[in-house]
Amino acid sequence: MKTYNRRTLLQLGASYGGLGLMSAFSHRSSAAEPTIASRAPKSLRYRPDLVAPEAPKGTEVIQLTTDTVPSCHVYMEAQIFTPDSKRFVLHRSAHAHGSDKNDPAHQYLLCDIDDGCSLSPLTTERGVTAPSVSPDGAYLYYFVNETEVNGGRLMLKRVRLDATGRETVLVLDNGVPGTGLRPSQIYPLSTISLDGARLALSASFGDGQTEDAPFGLMVFDVAKAATELILQGQTWCNLHPQYSRSTDADAGHDLLIQENHGNKANPQGEIVTLVSVDGADIHVVRDDGSAFRTMPWGRDGNEHCQGHQCWRGQSEWAITSTGTREPHGARLIEGTALPDAGHLGLKTLGAVRNDLTREIHEPDFYHFATDIAGTRLISDTGPMDQRGRVVVAKLGAPGEGVLRDVRPVAHPKCSWLKGAHMHPFLSPDGTKGFFNSDESGVLQAYMVTGF
């Protein structure tokens, strides 16, 4: 799902030293004693060696998983937390961008922070993918992928977070109604609307014979057990769909989506080329397929969307990570949607945007997320920064402010191999951060607190 749109990004930041970013950090020593770890099961590990030297006093890093198979967080944009920030979902026998649908060891686990970060299994089926925790924290929704090109089935299920009350919401075994198209190559991320009524999920609709067959976005109505295909086409191969978290009833139907221009796929729906030199652009669309809009980012020959973006909390603003040739850097830009005028990106008439990193020399940000209030941000830095740091920052007023109080909190010592990307994110209340690392030789999930 990673989309790098320039050679330096494809080299995973090899040309970004991060020195300018580091110059903005305050330097504070950390002599924190374990707090969560002291009352956690022995399988957890307090990791003072992964606390950044510059982190605020009291910062601690907890290794949440110690499995012999790779374990990790789902993804920084995934809706996997309960609203009280006390429980969340991660998975075992997986990598940073998903899992193998044929792996019998893959499953989703519930992590209960108040119970010493205990882990309990939520799924047992083979092929589980694309999880979303309902906004009220009552259910885990997930898909069971038994699809194949021109066949198989896709099931939407849900289970209570105590692993009881498991039920099948719907089964899609004859294609999407009214289209004659059958999904396969199921995308590993789903998204759920704030009212819990709808989920969106993307897939390939390759038929095994046609080059560059369409991909598309499906919307599932939970109460009606119905499915609708709202987008389809060659360019929708890497959608990163994200429902707006706005409490406004109308805005709650908006989906943030990514379009990969120039991608190529084989007849089985496997991606051969992810994006062309013109780069991806980011859009907003209602979940009935109407009101197609554009985010004012990239596509001017200088600024390219990396392929990561998220809503800024519950606001109408969204943030993306970019790569720019001049001035050099990997930036974070926020903006609001406006009517599409032909995939012009930042050149779209009426563009409203704000460079959150404009006061940082050669910013070096890649994967990131905000809290639900949209006032705090977490990100990783590039691999040339001692193989990357996890940093936190405060956000100013939307459309005006810049990142403030930027400081490292963790030094994950990650390899930066694609399957082990750090993908940091925050709990909804912004008090805890989460990231992946393969520093032990096996990918594991970590938490950072006290910052």
Element layout with pairings:
Elements: H1 7-10, H2 19-22, E1 45-46, E2 60-63, E3 71-73, E4 87-92, E5 107-112, E6 118-121, E7 128-133, E8 139-148, E9 151-160, E10 167-172, E11 190-192, E12 198-204, E13 215-221, E14 226-233, E15 242-243, E16 254-259, E17 264-265, E18 271-273, E19 281-286, E20 293-294, E21 303-311, E22 318-324, E23 329-335, E24 338-339, E25 353-355, E26 365-370, E27 376-381, E28 390-394, E29 404-410, E30 425-426, E31 432-437, E32 444-449
Antiparallel strand pairs: 1-2, 2-32, 3-4, 4-5, 5-6, 7-8, 8-9, 9-10, 11-12, 12-13, 13-14, 15-16, 16-19, 17-18, 19-20, 20-24, 21-22, 22-23, 23-25, 26-27, 27-28, 28-29, 30-31, 31-32
Would you write up a description of this structure?
By secondary structure, the protein is an all-beta fold. The protein has one domain (7-449): YVTN repeat-like/Quinoprotein amine dehydrogenase (Methylamine Dehydrogenase, Chain H), CATH 2.130.10. The chain has helices at 7-10, 19-22; strands at 45-46, 60-63, 71-73, 87-92, 107-112, 118-121, 128-133, 139-148, 151-160, 167-172, 190-192, 198-204, 215-221, 226-233, 242-243, 254-259, 264-265, 271-273, 281-286, 293-294, 303-311, 318-324, 329-335, 338-339, 353-355, 365-370, 376-381, 390-394, 404-410, 425-426, 432-437, 444-449. It has a five-stranded antiparallel β-sheet with strand order 1-2-32-31-30, with no helix packed on it. A five-stranded antiparallel β-sheet has the order 15-16-19-20-24, with no helix packed on it. The chain has a four-stranded antiparallel β-sheet with strand order 3-4-5-6, with no helix packed on it. The protein is globular. Residues 1-41 have low confidence and may be disordered.
